Amino acid sequence: MSDTTDPATETFVAHRNLLFTVAYEMLGSAADAEDVLQETWLRWIKVDLEHVRDQRAYLVRITTRQSLNRLRSLKRRKEAYLGPWLPEPLLTAPDVAEDIELAESMSMALMLVLETLSPTERAVFVLREAFDVSYGEIAAAVGKSPAAVHQIAHRARQHVDARRPRQVVSPSETRAALEAFRLAVETRDLQGLLNVLAPDVVLVGDGGGVKQAALRPVTGAERVARMFFGGLSKVEGTLTAELSMVNGNPALLVRLDGQIDGIMAICVEDARITGLYYVRNPEKLTRVETETPLTLR
User: Fold this and answer.
1) pTM of the entire predicted model
2) Within 10 Å of residue 3's Cβ, how many Cβ atoms?
3) What is the SS3 assignment for 17?
4) What is the tens place of the pLDDT at every residue in 92-133?
5) Residue 56: how many CA atoms within 13 Å on its side-chain side?
6) How many CB atoms lie within 10 A of CB 158?
7) In 3D, which of 236, 216, 243, 227 has the Cα closest to residue 190?
8) Helices 7-14 and 30-44 sit at what angle, rounded to 10 degrees?
9) Which residues is 8 bridged to in the sheet?
């Protein structure tokens, strides 16, 4: 992209984080979101800005349409994926967590729920719930009437509400559960681990067929605890875990002999962990070391 300060560039740069986040929430892939931004930029520089009344809305419209196009190819890739598929972890700055609605919509737990929506439902839900885009603007972005978008939004919200976590948990509560989890694992404290895991906790691992991970979700506190301690007994090297902000929420950045092994995100309800999401696929961890955490500004 050019370093000049022409109006098109200035506007695009000013809204870049917003556009990236829209694409990321629709796709669950930071790499694909970057590609969508490049496609958006190439279309944006051909637009006659004198005929654009709301430049932010126009950019969101382009980004949404490009994301919808890319969702088709992503669906084929996910169908051929080995084992569970998890969103690509995204490092975020603390200011993202301050926006409660955005942080929840970016969480691993909710993004997995969004995977069950149709592409249009997902676009409408993300634009309306996370970014408060008007029905008229969403209609222009997805090629539907405002009345149809209103119905789609209602249907998508009902679908998500039936599957999303019952509570919105503060970062401090998530951090406390993570610390208890980390301490129990580090000290091989089985009872301590069982105390922080909900009885029906679900562990989802994503190795992408490259790193070892369970090929299907593991359910139940005792089974999950056994898997963790059994796996740790086979590790050759030194494992460390540090707190980080991922997808707007506290998570653990796990290293093996100093190299990133994975990202562990969690879902918490009533101070206990109901969901564990461990991304080990190396292709989904490259940005963790190289990219600046996403901010709202």
Assistant:
1) 0.92
2) 5
3) helix
4) 998 898 888 889 999 999 999 999 999 999 999 999 999 999
5) 10
6) 9
7) 227
8) 160
9) none
Bridge-based pairing of strands 272-279 and 249-256 is unpaired
CA terminus-to-terminus distance, the chain: 20
Maximum distance among all alpha carbons in the chain?
A: 66
Tokens 């190299």, residue located: 259
DSSP H or E run through 201? strand 197-206
The answer to whether the CB of 155 falls within 8 A of the CB of 125 is: no
- Does residue 239 sit in helix, strand or coil? strand
Report pLDDT digits (tens) over 206-230.
Answer: 999 999 999 999 999 999 999 988 8
CA atoms 262, 265, 271, 272: torsion sign: negative
Q: Please classify residue 268 by burial: count the beta carbons closer than 10 Å to its beta carbon, then call 0-12 exposed, 13-18 middle and 19+ buried.
A: buried
> CB neighbours of 280 closer than 8 A, spacing ≥ 6?
205, 206, 207, 208, 210, 211, 212, 213, 261, 262
- Looking only at the bridges linking them, the beta strands covering 259-269 and 218-219 are unpaired
Which tokens is 140 given?
């222009």
By the 8 A CB rule, do 257 and 237 touch?
Answer: yes
Whole-angstrom CA distances from 180 to 51, 243, 245, 255 are 56, 12, 17, 18
Which amino acid is residue 65, in one-letter code?
R
Q: List phi, psi (to 5°) of 143.
A: 75, 35
